[in-house]
Automatic annotation (TrEMBL):
Signal peptide: 1-22
Annotated PANTHER family: PHOSPHONATES-BINDING PERIPLASMIC PROTEIN (PTHR35841)
Key words of the record: Signal
CDD domains in alphabetical order: PBP2_PhnD_like
Name by which UniProt lists this protein: Phosphonate ABC transporter substrate-binding protein
Similarity remark: Belongs to the phosphate/phosphite/phosphonate binding protein family.
Pfam family of the protein (one): Phosphonate-bd
Gene name in the database record: phnD
SUPFAM superfamilies registered for this protein in UniProt: Periplasmic binding protein-like II
């Protein structure tokens, strides 16, 4: 009887503590992946911070544009970040280290209804490279070690087209500090092929409808007439918006509902933070990323 009473009291205390923590949440900390330069990331996310403060009355919404993907991953694992948009491989990295650290709540949906995107290989048209097989003995640029489209997928899928591991087929491979820097490295001739994220939908001259290529074309940083797509991966699951589980179920639901309503509430803000022409968010569960988790475990571990 004593044990049952003690258990019941402990359970009630945990529920009360959880409710208190939810009610006392004064600051929300949002991690931003290192896909483009810091100033652009902060400017694009400023509207999101404003909406969150107004919606929930937070005293502060802090934006943390990490220098690399691992900064966001470690922030979620260490409890210094509460919410973040991750790539599928980044989520896999968190899940492998601690399956209970975060909950994936939503992912983006393309205009064709799909919830996936591609890794594409881009090269200068003047290089004469037309397919990935033409790049034998050339330099391959990766984005970030924790990027799905900028590393994990090209690492495991390009060899299926070339017949050799990347470190054998190419003269060299290198990381270029994020997606934007990687694409610019190819554009500036520092590498021969750069792999980056793309919807693969729409007009190549627009940089397609979403992804890094789309962003840099929209900003005028590159002229798409000078580039050519030389490789495309199989479809990759769009990355999730995740919430740290320590916030509790109440806040996880509130934040999910907020994000779901954002595209209708402020389409311009939604497009700014997601960087493309999406229709909105759709709910997603952890098992949507099971295949990516297994590929990451096999290819590069945690």
């Amino acid at each position: 009887m004593f044990k049952k009473a003690l258990f019941a009291a402990t359970a009630l205390l945990a529920l009360a503590t959880g409710a208190a923590n939810a009610a006392d949440l004064k600051e929300l900390r949002i991690g931003i992946l290192g896909g483009e330069n810091e100033a652009d990331r902060l400017r694009n996310y400023a509207c999101l911070a404003g909406h969150l403060k107004k919606e929930f009355g937070f005293e502060k919404v802090s934006l943390f544009p990490a220098a690399d993907y691992d900064g966001v991953i470690q922030g979620l694992l260490g409890g210094t970040l509460d919410v973040a948009g991750l790539g599928a491989s980044g989520y896999a990295a968190v899940y492998i280290k601690d399956p209970k650290a975060v909950t994936p709540i939503l992912t983006t949906q393309q205009k064709d209804g799909s919830t996936g995107y591609y890794s594409i290989g881009l090269a200068l048209k003047s290089s004469g490279i037309k397919t990935i097989k033409d790049a034998k003995g050339k330099k391959l640029g990766y984005a970030d070690p924790d990027s799905t489209s900028g590393y994990l997928v090209p690492l495991t899928q390009i060899p299926k087209d070339t017949g050799a591991p990347n470190d054998k087929f190419f003269a060299s491979t290198q990381f270029n500090g994020g997606h934007e820097n990687n694409l610019l490295a190819a554009y500036d001739g520092k590498v021969d092929v750069a792999v980056d994220d793309s919807s693969g939908l729409g007009d190549f001259m627009d940089g397609y409808t979403s992804g890094t290529f789309h962003k840099v074309v929209a900003k005028g940083s590159v002229d798409p007439n000078k580039l050519v797509e030389v490789w495309r991966s199989p479809l990759i699951p769009n990355g999730p918006v995740v919430v740290r589980n320590a916030l509790g179920d109440e806040w996880i639901k509130k934040i999910a509902d907020f994000y779901l309503s954002l595209p209708k509430k402020d389409e311009k803000c939604f497009n700014a933070i997601e960087g493309g022409d999406f229709t909105g968010y759709v709910p997603v569960k952890p098992d949507f990323y099971n295949a990516v988790v297994e590929v990451r475990k096999a290819a590069i571990g945690g």
